[in-house]
TrEMBL record:
Provenance organism: Cuscuta campestris
Region: Disordered, residue numbers: 1-31
UniProt biased composition (Polar residues): 19-31
InterPro entries: Leu-rich_rpt_Cys-con_subtyp (IPR006553), LRR_dom_sf (IPR032675)
Protein known as: RNI-like superfamily protein
Domain of life according to the entry: Eukaryota
Higher taxonomy: Eukaryota, Viridiplantae, Streptophyta, Embryophyta, Tracheophyta
SUPFAM superfamilies according to UniProt: RNI-like (SSF52047)
Amino acid sequence: MEKGRPQKAVNAIKPARKPSQSSVLPISSTPSRKKRQIPSLVSLCIGFIGRHFEDIIEDLADIASSFPPNIKIALAAVARRRKLMDDDVILALADSSWEILDISGSDVSDFGLSEVVKTCKYLKTVDISWCSKVTWAGVSELFHHSQSLEILRWGGCSRSEDTARRCLCMLKPSLKDVEGESWEEVDASELARGAHLLRWLVWPKIGNDSLEHLQAECPRIIVNPKNTLFTFRGLEVPREALPDVALDDQVVEDIDPKTWELSPRTSFTLVPSRPDELPIAEKFRLAYLERDNRLAPKRAKNARQRQRRAEKEWVMMSTNAKALALASQATKSLHIRS
């Protein structure tokens, strides 16, 4: 190569360099896939217990007494998903450190709810939707004991909808002592009654009248917030206030979903028979007739044997029969001699 040759001529004979994949695709187009983590030993144990949860319900109070709060709430989530949650289960698993309570779609009644809220005094989020056994009495106990309640979910089935409409008046602010001597010296928390910190209400089937009533009487409560980039009145919508998110999803995110899957019923598929093939009932009938004809001679022989045996026993037992038998033998011998 001559000295003084332009450098661009040298670059022209070099092979073109392929652009890397990272240089071709923009950063925004490369989706970040979250790797599925290996479940921990605790999650595997919870999954095993959850699959056999119905076997330990009778002794659950004794078994769960030594469990930490995170294990209890995980077992409660599994029991709810397996349709096994009732008063006994939730009372055996309730822990005073809980801040969320999800009993939606369960068989928990007013008694179970009232006892749970006495134990869990720091609840901030509660879901009682689709609970047909919870009435206004249980909701009243919930508001009375849960002074930190911020998010509430209710409604769903017809009974839950009726309970929600009857308890709508409990959401309105009211005063315990209207005729106080000096309101300035009284703590603000002692003046209010009910869930005075409630900010988010999830009620998918709320009627227009109830919605207008809430907006007029309780403007602080936001009903059915949506997952948007904008905030409501300067407040960011919490994840627990979204209707399409289960409260206890984060509790069981590391547990195998097969733990609470209901085993499907075994279905038997009927194989269509050929047109020239006999039905099963006809096959059984023909087989029975063939066997009956084959055993007919043997049955006749057995009948004759039973008859001779019966006659012999009758002769041995009856005196008259013995006399007749001896007489017939004597007659036969006389005829032979003559």
